[in-house]
Every structure is written in C-alpha cells, then in structure tokens.
Amino acid sequence: MNQASGIFGIEAASRYLPQQLPIQAWAQANHADAATLATLEKQGMRNFHHAGDESVEDMAGNALQALIDSHGLDREDVDLLVFVHSLSTSTPAAPASLPARLASAFGLGRARCFALSGQNCASLLLSLRVMRSLFHAEPDLKKVLLVSADRCCGESYRTAGGITFHSDGASALLLGRDTPFNRVLALEGHVSGRHHRAYARPEALRREYRTLYGTIAHRLLTRTAQFAGLALGDFRYLVAENLDLNISRRLATSLGQPADWVYSDNVSACGHVQCSDSVIDLVDLWHSGPINPDGDNLLFFMSGANGSQAAMALGRCRAPGSGPSS
C-alpha cells in the first residue's frame, strides 16, 4: 500500500515542560568553560527546562493529563498506550512497567500497553512506523496514545557533545484512524549500526557521523516528500530537532529552500527535549504559529546520536477544532 494513503493521523497533542532556566546560569553553576557557552549561544541555545525533583513518570503523567483535559478524551476509546523514550534511564527496570502504571493511574483499563526505544532522539518518529503497521494489521485499532518523557541522567550530559543542550520534558499524542487533518502521509527512517556507541564511539566515527549527517538527512527528507506525493516546496516548514540552528539551516539550503523554512522558534526557549521535540514544536505551531486554518503540510526530522534518523510528512496540519470540519 502506498504510504501516502494516510491511514492514520494526529487527533490531539500536548507537551509538558518543567521549570525554565537560562543556560548561562547552568554554565556558572556547573563550571562550564566560556568556549562551551559561546558555542551554545552561537547555535541559538539560550534556555532549557530542568525537572528538579520531578521523575520521568511525573512528567509523562502531566503531559497525558494535559492531553486529556484539552481534548476531552473518553478513556474507554483508547485501544493502545505506548511509552516512547530516548534515554535508557527513562524507564524503570523490569518487571516494573511505566506504561502499565500510566494506564492504571489514568483509568485506561481497555488499553494494551508497551514501551519503545532504542533509536535515541529519533525514537518517537520511528515508533510511528510501528503504529502505521499496527493500524494496517489490526482493523479494529482506532485510537492510540503515544507518551514520551525523558530527563537528563546527569548535568555533565546536558551539552550533548557540543551540538545542542538537553532539556527535560514530556509529550503526548493521540493517534486516530482516518483522521481528516494532521494525517501522517509518509514515514522514513535510517539506522547505522556503526554508530551504536553514540558519544562513546571513537573520534574517527564521530567525524564520519558529522560528515555524512547532512547527506543522509537530505536523502531521507527528499524520499519522504516523494512518498507523500509532494514537492519540498509544498511544505510550509521543515520542523527539525532542536539542535544547532546552523546545521538545520544548511540542510534547508541543500534542499533548495530558504533558511527561514526551518521552524526555529523553540530552539532558544526549550533546548533539545530528547525525542519530544517534534511534538512540542507541533503543539506550539498549532497554537501560536502562522499555520493556515485550512491546513498546511509540515516535514519533520529527528536524529539520534547512535546513527538513527527519521522523517515524517504531515498533511493538512492544523490545530484540533480550528477551521472547517472537512
């Protein structure tokens, strides 16, 4: 079946971000050198979100509650709850199950539940490929809750190899079959096992990753647009992960698009919220961005330090409940 058939879409989304702090204050408290701070500021980083005493489960619950409150979700309608995370430290050790605890806490008695990870910050977009397969394989599957949350596992890890600044936060998506708006038109992914050690890999492999990053991203985004049946210019924005803004803008230029094609409003405000970046950007575009009420097309891109990359084409994108009903 052609991916552009759009069997499912996003009915609702929410985000939860704990307290916001300036990166400059973090640098002073953690004795970061001036060169590191200057590099982050050059990349567009100004603020980040710190969970403090909040756990991953707390943040996931807050994001899920925000979605339920804003959408008026009937808990009996939810068929599946999936927890997606970037960091291995964001889920409890077996036999505990964070998605099962969320399902119990929120009265989602009908919902099956499981967790997905393994592709670092590309995990959420890549998990949508699994959801697409499930929607195709199970005709009775109507509504899926996708919840993501991560908190940095130590202050020394926040600078992420000098290409971004890690924030803590959470997000939630409600996926529905045959939704008329925010339809997932195409999903593409790339994974290279050579980089599975991420930041612990040898310097030669780090250089290789940086060298090939733009080439692979260019190919992935071009292919995603083709599968969606759209030209790159048909997309209102490239919604890239909150990394170095210079990298995202160079990627846009390589695709023949202007630098302002990259949606960048959240980079300075949020930092990089692991695999929740895409959802956070989507929610903010819905509620404060200049999206056409009739629905725009958006092209999303995320990558993981372990060599994984993911892209999604979202069609007729607009805030739930806005504009004409069909």
Strand content: 15-25%
Measure the end-to-end span.
Answer: 24 Å
Average pLDDT number: 88
Helix content: 25-40%
- Structural class determined from secondary elements: alpha/beta
Low-confidence stretches: none
Helix-strand topology string: EEHHEHEHEHEEEHEHHHEE
Report the total helices.
9
Q: In total, how many domains does the architecture comprise?
A: 2
Helices, strands, pairings?
Blueprint: E1 8-16, E2 19-22, H1 23-29, H2 34-42, E3 47-50, H3 56-71, E4 80-84, H4 98-105, E5 112-116, H5 123-137, E6 143-150, E7 169-177, E8 183-191, H6 203-228, E9 235-240, H7 245-254, H8 267-270, H9 277-288, E10 296-303, E11 308-317
Parallel strand pairs: 4-5, 4-6, 9-10
Antiparallel strand pairs: 1-7, 2-3, 6-7, 8-11, 10-11
Keywords:
24% strand, 326 residues, 33% helix, Thiolase-like, four-stranded mixed β-sheet, Peroxisomal Thiolase, Chain A, domain 1, globular, 11 strands, FAE1_typ3_polyketide_synth, 9 helices, alpha/beta, ACP, acyltransferase activity, transferring groups other than amino-acyl groups, five-stranded mixed β-sheet
